[in-house]
């Protein structure tokens, strides 16, 4: 899916962002938007869904709020059936309840990565079982047909857009560090390291919004200053439906290759357990989301499979993980450079960004998350031999997120 965001105008001089303050502003804004949505939608499924509203600051772009993937379609556990097969509803609720319990356990034992990975896989299996039950009960009913039959279930796109516009105009100034040309976007769909909520169609390696609502910070500033009426300001808040890119197979292939390179049998540093997801923002670039792990734990002893180390204490494990971090970043930069030549369908001025949520390591010197950024032009220039590898690597910037 493509997030339509209009043509970008980048400021030549970027104002330095206070990361701690930005994070605070994002968390407050998330809460405000979630509250507005909860108050507007009475259906319990949607009230539950609003708990998963997330916001992120994207450098040189603005702030993107993501609504959970199930805002546009209720959670499987909340299906009701006119067919009289109420017993199947109980089965589905039982399956989803078990899934939620496993995910809760995963949160309580986040420091034990092996357990977290195992529980995540079990949760995925249970989620799939619940979905299969739902599909059987629906007896071939498509998602579109189900929505037509249950149009009174609580979801109303016009109402949702109205709430988003209210949020932008009345509370968009909470994002005080944004420049006037920065954008504020709300995407109804999945974007990021992954959502624990489950929609009718399970997420694949490709994330995507059902639709997006966006505007520039200047619109909000002009409205607050009385330069625009509410009607005029609302007219400048744009709604974009997703469109299919004609040439996106190159992006899919690149994402698949990068995912394979960081499976535990090939990686020499950190590894992934799921495919790397991605999102395209028009006139900005491609964002890839990557969650990496480093070790497993059994009976209090750690193993680091990529380093061929086992029977480690936590202190020994943490030291090795800390030492692997710079090797991981160097390796990731090299792989982006070498395989980035596969990307053909984005423009030279657009960016390729990897947002990496790093393995658990406390206390360690390494950060919790990082961001690697390079323009497509650098990748093209290296692939064509216009610049040497050393110069290309210097043009891949690394930013610590937390």
What features would you describe in this structure?
By secondary structure, this protein is an alpha+beta fold. It has helices at residues 19-40, 44-49, 86-108, 113-138, 143-149, 157-171, 217-224, 230-235, 249-261, 314-339, 376-383, 389-394; strands at 2-3, 54-58, 62-67, 183-190, 208-216, 238-240, 277-281, 285-291, 296-298, 301-304, 309-312, 351-357, 369-375, 397-400. The strands form three sheets. It has a six-stranded mixed β-sheet. A hairpin with a 4-residue loop joins strand 10 and strand 11. The chain is globular and about 65 Å long. Residues 1-14, 70-111, 133-143, 146-154 and 193-208 have low confidence and may be disordered.
Number of helices: 12
Largest sheet: 6 strands, mixed
Number of strands: 14
Which structural class do you get from the secondary structure elements? alpha+beta
Tell me the distance between the termini.
Answer: 28 Å
Task: Explain the layout of strands and helices.
Layout: E1 2-3, H1 19-40, H2 44-49, E2 54-58, E3 62-67, H3 86-108, H4 113-138, H5 143-149, H6 157-171, E4 183-190, E5 208-216, H7 217-224, H8 230-235, E6 238-240, H9 249-261, E7 277-281, E8 285-291, E9 296-298, E10 301-304, E11 309-312, H10 314-339, E12 351-357, E13 369-375, H11 376-383, H12 389-394, E14 397-400
Parallel strand pairs: 1-7, 3-4, 8-12
Antiparallel strand pairs: 2-3, 4-5, 5-6, 7-8, 9-10, 10-11, 12-13, 13-14
What does this entry show, briefly?
The protein has twelve helices and 14 strands.
For the structure shown, list the relevant keywords.
402 residues, alpha+beta, 6-stranded mixed β-sheet, 5-stranded mixed β-sheet, 12 helices, 41% helix
